[in-house]
Amino acid sequence: MSGSKQRAAVIGVGQTKYASTRGDVSLAGLVREAAYRALEMAGKQWSDIDAVVIGKAPDFFEGIMMPEIYLAEALGCVGKPILRVHTAGSVGGSTAVVATSLVQAGIHGTVLTLGFEKQSESNAMWALSLPSPFTTSINAGAGGYFSPIIRRYMEYSGAPELIGCMVALKDRQHALNNPYAHVQDHELTFDKVVESPMLWDPIRYSETCPSSDGACAMVLTDETGAEAHDGAVAWIHGTAMRSEANNYGGRNVVSPKASEDCAADVFAQAGITNPREQIDAVEMYVPFSWYEPMWLESLGFAEKGEGWRMVESGATKHEGGDLPVNCSGGVLSTNPIGASGMIRFAEAALQVMGEAGAHQVDGAKTAFGHAYGGGAQYYAMWVVGAEKP
Amino acid sequence: MGYNQDPNVQPAALSGEVTMPAALAEVEPVQSVRTPAAIEYIATPGASLSAYLRAMKDKKILGDKCPVTGQVFVPPRGVSPVSGQRTTEMVEVADAGYVESFNITRLPIKSRPDLNPPYVSAWVVPDGANVGSISLVAGIEPEDVRIGLRVRAVWKPDDELEESAANILHWEPTGEPDVVLDDLRVIGKPGDAQ
Amino acid sequence: MRDIAVVASMQRQEKSIDNESEVEYMVPLMHGVKESIGITQADVGFTCSGSSDFIAGQAFSFVMTVDGANPVPPISESHVEMDGAWALYEAWVKMQMGEIDIALIYGYSKSSGGSLRDVLATQMDPYYVAPLWPDAFAIEALAARQLIESGKTSMEHLAELASRARDHAASNPNAVRTKAKSVADIMAEAPLMDPLRPSDIPASADGGCALILAAGDRARELCERPAWIRGIDHRTDAHTLGVRDLTTSMSARIAGEQAGVSDDKVDFAELYAPFTTSELVLTEALGLGDDTIINPSGGALSAHTMMASGLIRIAEAAQRITNGDGDRAVATAGSGPNLQQNLVCVLEGE
Fold it and tell me: Number of A:C CB contacts under 8 A?
């Protein structure tokens, strides 16, 4: 027997309102808010769900070991399978990929997938810097790690110094069209971004992602379910995951091979030979502004060294851009870490479903969702389309 | 039903009123509780890191050598990702090297109250190693630090040396000419095969 | 379903591994299991692992270990914050799509660095239960009490299970509790968490397991007698203490039915039963009879490596099939308080 791959599609997306503190809900309340919205859009009940695939970043963020165990009842899982994925920052994307594979492999007909983080219930900085007696820590969080990589990119590409600020302003303005986004700053201007304090020079405060509470859920179903669905459908045209070591001689830290391989794989599955031409909307994992031009190059939307020119020309803006990136506001506006990747995937789905509301890209037929994590070493990506593949 | 465009509109299943017993009608609801938790762990460094820490006491920097490719990793972790094999040979690398990249950190961090921002957090690649690790660069104005800068380790006084990576206080410029990075490590230059 | 089999495995379990880090002791298993059947990482289409940050005491702890999977050039890879048995499940699902033929699975933990009993308390409901820090043995003692009170078992019966596990473990080089002890001697043990005695609770170990899955003819090329996965399923019970009947396991029963445990005679079973009481519950839920040998390896009572113990059950069952010790086996994995989650895998030789 050779095995076979079935078609799969998204029929429901649900998100919570994102905020620095969702003190009005428990963890269970948070995940249920997203799950119910996804079920409602899909026109499904808990009893229609065959399995749940859940993802989140390190358990130390909330101080609960394997929280999906406690969430079994809240997620309607009693008597059902629940699988918990953890692949660092890419986890929201990886979780959606694993959920998709359950449908594609013909194991389950309809699957609920969900990513969440409730950073306000614990101390994320503590969780990320548990003291080790063996090393001397001088690294202030993720920005401390990624800023030297950004500096390498700036140096080799010769990009103008304020490209990152342009990305930051763009994503914060995009967020104003997304009522779910965490950061909603109507007063932000380019000058304010430029003048915001340097945290990890060359990264400014306003070029950095926030820390959010929130959850994002999707209902995935098989071909029969998608065809019977009375509503918008996002067909999954390809999924891919790649991992590599974070430190070895000859590693390209600016455009890691795992990123390039993962993109090549997912584009081949989706029949995409010219991503810039063929993809209508991109939801890219950009926790620090400069990662937009870096990923544009790594993923093949721009030539090497030229990604910043797309930013400069406004090509990645919702209004007037030919490749709108992060119309939802992106990670720069909303960052519940374990959900951040899934939000990218879900927002890509909403675009091809024509359900993105005020941040809808007109006529989007094909969209790309992207997530990365660890030392820019874990990748998850998907391509979704309005048409059945 | 389409996507819920209004986060203030709760899903139907969650929008019902919660009825409370009359006795609780006037009681203010509990919004949060604090439940401090602590777990103690005994950390073990493993074979390679142990050797590295011991050598630190003698002002030596040890790395792991990949048995297949010869790549040298510092600090050592006992495994070579490029061959997927256990490293068996440890080699000494120089206490001088170059800055592969860096940031200027302008915010204080809790775990190092001794560091006064701004300070330079750099990837320093010691001579003889194939990879860098994050290290403090000082003895130079932060604005003057650059990619390719040659640096050497500044060690604690001999009578204060311990089995600790903290024996290297920081790295300072050597005054040698800068290293041109293209010769040393692959970076995504336009047109690169990788 | 596509035919997929366990073709090789390697494990290591010791009371505590003090001189090596997780990645240092896992690399010989991860590399060794491939070497044992003459393949390299380039032959592996998917890699998947299971581990826990809370046990390691470090966020993103699995990032340190992935280097052992030889991820240069990049690999298609995933990780579950669950026992490695669920990593195997994820790989099995992926292989069903027919695009990859070989997968590397691993699971590991070094729990000797922290008090596992306390660490596991952080799994409980964070608002109502975890602040009370109920330790893992205390939670299982509730089940033991119910089982005894309901007449389903007795202290003597549990002692028999414990004594037999020790006998079986004697021939297992990876077991850490191997000293024979008679039923009478176990009956004489002072309870640790009444009614659980020291012999009723797991022998905690550090270690891990690496395993290779292969599909169809590729499996036959790599292994003389592959252990074919004929059914695999996993389920969860409710979490809230008091909602469940702790004397039975709905999750194990459903998973067992879905995996087809009762379709034919089961020669032996490797059950993830860290407590004597969990063995009792699982045996009943899966409908295993007297003609099935339970835990020929000594089971998790004799060596309990969190995050790998379930995967090790599958590895042990598969190895016995490959060796020709039997034709049909059941292996289980579990997670959570009172085995809230259970995975059941049916393995057969050809």
Answer: 184
